[in-house]
Write a structure and sequence with these properties.
The chain has 89 residues and is mainly α. The protein has one domain. The protein contains five helices and no strands. Helix 1 crosses helix 2, helix 2 runs antiparallel to helix 3 and helix 3 crosses helix 4. The relative contact order is 0.14. The mean pLDDT is 92.
Length: 89
């Protein structure tokens, strides 16, 4: 994984509720979309959620029952990041 990949994974897994977190997640979503790791439909959910800092796009994807492969990827990455930082939960 490149440094740019790591940076964008950190951004896209920014917790909901932090100031500007929706925009940070959308910026990272654009990165993954350009790498063909995310569909246009999933990117659109990130765009919609970009101005709503308290809304996690992954939760919206689950609610709309779309983007299962992306959801799995994000959940695996969140678990990996929390393990590497020593955070449980």
């Amino acid at each position: 994984m490149t440094d740019e990949d790591r940076e964008n994974w950190a951004l896209i897994t920014t917790p909901a509720g932090e100031d500007w977190s929706g925009r940070a997640r959308y910026a990272a979503a654009m990165y993954f979309y350009r790498k063909n790791e995310m569909s246009a439909e999933v990117l659109e959910i990130y765009r919609i959620c970009s101005r709503i800092d308290h809304e996690d796009a992954v939760d919206a994807l689950k609610a709309y029952r779309m983007g299962d492969a992306w959801i799995k990827k994000v959940e695996e990455k969140r678990a990996e990041l929390s393990e590497s930082s020593g955070i449980k939960g």
